[in-house]
Amino acid sequence: MRYFNLFSTIFITKGAGRILISDLQRNVSELYPLELYEMIEELKNLSIEEMFEMYDEDSKNAVQEYVDILLENEYGFITENDWDKNFPPLSHEYLEPNTINDLFIEITDFSLLNDLRISIENLEIKHLVIYSSKSLTKEDFVNIDKIFESSVLSGIEIFSPFHEEIDYLFILDLNNTTERIYSLIFYNCAQEPFKVKDEFKFTVHFAEDDLKISACGKVDMKYFNTNLSKVLEAINHNSCLHKKIGIDWNGNIKNCPLMQENFGNIQEISLEKLMLQVTFKKYWNLTKDHIKVCKDCEFRYICTDCRAYTEQSHYDPDGLDISKPLKCGYNPYTTEWEEWSTHPLKQKAIHFYNL
Ligand code: SF4
Ligand code: SF4
């Protein structure tokens, strides 16, 4: 008898109307109809021959077609006997030794980075995201990178307005003189100064829009991320705020710079002391399985959970906001995407956030 075995790196998320099959080794996800989910569940216990016996001729063909799809996409393999117990499932535990992974700062004064360097080391922060509303010179970029020379920090992403000095040589120079910058986003750029190829050690993106920091939190398929570590984090913790610190342009420390609640000012409290405040971590373990609508969405483990902009419609008994992210137009019950900003039920929250 032939048995179908799913590879342990294949992760299936069941939504209200569809399923998402994520290949955590290849970092890709594909959508399929719900009936495939039922069939995969049956294939866990029955041989393919036993499945054929259960169904009429039409359904048999459907079973064969689905098995072919599963094999073509290399989601699994066939064995002659039931070998399932010999292939232990992948652990979905998320273990991360760093106290903090991400620091997201809206910056106006770069001396703040010098002050934060020790805390970044102590908390073993991995990624620094800087949003600057001020145009940065080449020296600014180099100096930011230099502050973290021989630091635990592994990467820096910088959002900065585009200006006329930025050309191919400007970027090439940064490529030769910086180490930790992995992403540069120049916004407010009417015209791309040159075509970017894969020649730099960081990614470079020129955005036409005047990218305000408040643009963060948009939910779109192009931002979904099928990455083993991100998916495991989303299964166990909040996919945006877990192990994240935000500092807004006033120096207020928050879960992200756009959140309303602030936990003190960086001039008065160190990031290390902040870690002792239990309330700072209250959103860290809120997964999408507890968020209204998202809990029924097939994208819930590859989608970022924005808590700064929500529909403000539901709160749990501890007062945590468990409403759907405001900037998402997806309806998992109809499997349709709509424009979120004109949705009548979102207008009150849009007005509240002044978007
Ligand atoms: S409904 Fe929730 S999980 Fe689904 S795409 Fe929107 S924000 Fe993401
Ligand atoms: S909570 Fe929302 S606004 Fe804040 S970083 Fe996450 S996605 Fe962006």
Fold and architecture overview:
With 355 residues, the protein is α/β, with parallel strands linked by helices. Among the domains are: 84 residues; 146 residues, no CATH class. It has nine helices and 14 strands. A seven-stranded mixed sheet has the order 10-9-8-7-6-11-12, with no helix packed on it. The protein is globular and about 70 Å long. The relative contact order is 0.12. Bound molecules: iron/sulfur cluster (2 copies).
Short overview:
By secondary structure, the chain is α/β, with parallel strands linked by helices.
Number of separate helices = 9
Rough outline: globular
Instruction: Assign the structural class, choosing from mainly alpha, mainly beta, alpha/beta, alpha+beta, or little secondary structure.
Output: alpha/beta
Poorly predicted parts = none
Ends apart, CA distance between termini: 60 Å
Helix content: 10-25%
Taken in chain order, the helices and strands follow as EEEEHHHEEHEHEHEEHEEHEEH
Strand line-up of the largest beta sheet: 10-9-8-7-6-11-12
Please indicate the percent range of residues in DSSP E strands (runs of 2 or more). Answer: 15-25%
The whole-angstrom Rg is: 24 Å
